[in-house]
Amino acid sequence: MNSVATIRDHLADYLKTNHMTLNQFSEISGINSGTLSGTLNGLRPIGMQQLDRLTAGMGLTEGYFYELYINECFVHASPDWRRLGPFLYRCAELGKINYMEEAVNLIMDNLSYAPLLFELAEQLYHEGRLEAAKPLYLCVAEGEKMQHSERLALSQYRLFTIGLSQDQLSNLTLATQFEFFVDRLDEPYQLDGLNDLINVYASLRRWDKVRGLANQLKLKAMIHYELRETSGATEAKLKKQDIFYVSYAYLMLGEACFYYEEYEKALQYVSLYTDYSWVNDPSEEETVVIRQFEEWAEGNRYLYELMSGKTEVIQSYMNYISERENEIFPALCAIVNAANRFDINIDSVLETYEAYFMYQEQSSRIGKISEQYTNDQYGTLLVGLGTYYLKHEDYNRGFELILNGLDFAIKIKNKDSILECIKLFEEFWYGAVEEAKLRYKQLIREV
User: Fold this and answer.
1) Which candidate, 9, 97, 89, 92, places its Cα nearest to that of 54?
2) What is the structure's pLDDT at 2?
């Protein structure tokens, strides 16, 4: 495409080359002949709908003229939202994010566009067009970074949730950036934001952060619940019920104690998310939440008792998960960990649940478990299983699991798991066959 030529030039050349009149092209493209005449004479600006019809009428691919459109309408003319808004939305529909970025960069310094960009970003976000919403939120966040507005805080929250991935290093950066803004969110969004931050920091094993954020979540959720009960207001904007956030805060405080090996204190938190005497006349949805946390409490009691040295609870723990498929994965992680710690033979357990050694999304009766947290647990399970088999001199299976764990840890950039796998492989190097050593060396190159 000749970058100097305008869209009108391309249209005029097309009509001339194909010996076509305006009326003939009007029939092909569906654009009124008078509109076409005004466009060719430069008397009428080109709208998005006309641009797409013109492009299709000329037999060109969708978006063919978008780069020229940006140049003509937004660079060499003052951007008009009546054209810019539809252009951005159409780019979002076609997945042409690069053109969206180019267009919004031209208006980033004009704060008057921030409300309009934010409104469109929210529309795209709720339609599930997350990558398309991202450059708009970035523009709002950059333009209003000195304004301390609710719009700025919510844009940062959206960028945080959109950006989360398997890459744990990237997730840490996102969490660190967003944490600064979470207190500026409107209160219901604060609860969601704190909950999401807790999940990310838990997946990163930043239990000091988890403790601090969980205490904030508990306090804010209790206040929100009490105010709602007093005023009779509904739980607008909340993803989940207030009692979920209170209970989840207690659960994660218990998890933090567990990882600090404070098992008695962890059990005290279990009792807190089984006591719902403070809930007045729970609704049907709240009852579902209560039942889920009661179920988790039973499983976590077995877990904390097991890790404190009460290995006799394994059978009760097995009975518990036999009727709860969603609890098998976290239970396996715990039982394998305990077996390695206390030198317990769990061959029969592993044989029964071998199918769960594969990665699977985790969910509960109240929704999906955080992908980031599941990833960290799965990596831990692979390392634990590999350790168990290596200690029991089943080297082929042990090294296969350790290498799978190293491969997975590299993909999600989990530094702790990478180091654990390397340490284990080096410790049991003498038992590895040449094929395993070769794969190990290949993975180390990736590290």
Assistant:
1) 9
2) 47
Contacts of 28 (CB under 8 A, 6+ apart): 57
Whether residue 1 is predicted with pLDDT greater than 70 in this model: the reply is no
As a whole number of Å, the CA-based R_g of the chain is 29
- What six digits make up the tokens of 435? 């094929």
Is 328's pLDDT higher than 80?
Answer: yes
Where helices occur in 413-433 by DSSP H, the ranges are 415-427
- Rounded distance between C-alpha atoms, residue 447 and residue 442, angstroms: 9
CB 38 within 8 A of CB 50: no
User: Is 96 in contact with 69 (CB distance < 8 Å)?
Assistant: no
Instruction: Write the pLDDT tens digit of every residue in 134-162.
Output: 999 999 999 888 777 789 999 999 999 99
Beta strand pairing call for 367-368 and 363-364: antiparallel
Which contacts qualify for 394-402: CB closer than 8 Å, 24 or more apart? 395/428, 395/431, 395/432, 395/433, 396/433, 396/436, 398/428, 398/431, 399/425, 399/428, 399/431, 399/432, 399/433, 399/436, 400/436, 401/357
The answer to whether the CB of 300 falls within 8 A of the CB of 331 is: no
DSSP class of residue 5 equals S
What pLDDT is recorded for position 359? 84
Tens digit of each residue's pLDDT (9 = 90 or more) over 35-77: 888 888 876 778 888 899 999 999 999 999 999 999 988 888 8
- Max CA separation in the chain (angstroms): 90
